[in-house]
Amino acid sequence: MDVFRVRPFDNISLPCQFSFVDSTEGLSFTWEREDIKEEHEVEDDDFYKYFVGLHDFYQFYPKVIYSFSNNMEQVEERNSLYEGRVWVDEEEIPEGSLTLMLDQVQFSDEAMYICKATNSRGRGSRKMKLVVEDAEEPQVQFSTVDDILVAKCISAGWYHMPKVTWRNRKEEDLSGYSKTEILEEKQDGSHRVVSTLHYPVLLHEIYTCHIEESDVLNRPVRSIHKVPKRKYHNMYNHY
């Protein structure tokens, strides 16, 4: 099984290719998250009542994140958390490619994904795992401050206690020469930041800006749903 790694807030393509796919005619295919269960078994009426209440309290999401049939994308049953962030290049479908493009990757996108396709010539599936790294590495830009060359990076994510680490191509830690400031703030206290490296910056040098959450109570959430296990012998034993 293939494993793909990506930095948060970057874009990634998840490849899926089938030899029996040569056009969109009669083709149906989906991209799904394997970790999302849409059907659950309950063993008694009491827990059934509890489970119905659980659906009202927590938000549940369908496992389908992209669906194609009848020569067009089907958006009705798609997971809303992926709206506007997933797409398939339909011009590549006749070449057998059903590659999913996932934009602005979130921590909650980490999961096992399955690509399923069927037409009159065959059917098939491909499974892969997407791993989202713990920190983002935004693009580094050069500018001048008081006629001095500096390097800057701006976080795409929101942090309560951002830890910014600057390194050069030799992996030397230059963080002590940097200054991090709040760019904008939310009501929950999280904020985006801009960090400026004041170390004698050289245009021909390579710098990386590494940003992660240092507050253990506000680490990124990697689960987009909370569901009970499939079998219960005690209606209160749901954790």
TrEMBL record:
InterPro entries registered for this protein in UniProt: BTN3A2-like_Ig-C, Ig-like_dom, Ig-like_dom_sf, Ig-like_fold, IgSF_BTN/MOG
Compartment(s): Membrane
Domain of life: Eukaryota
Listed GO MF terms: signaling receptor binding
UniProt keywords, alphabetically: Immunoglobulin domain, Membrane
GO biological process: regulation of cytokine production; T cell receptor signaling pathway
Organism this protein belongs to: Pseudonaja textilis
A GO-annotated cellular component: external side of plasma membrane
Pfam families per UniProt: C2-set_3 (PF22705)
Ranges where the Ig-like domain occurs: 1-131
Residues in the signal sequence: none
UniProt keyword Membrane, yes or no: yes
Protein name from the UniProt record: Ig-like domain-containing protein
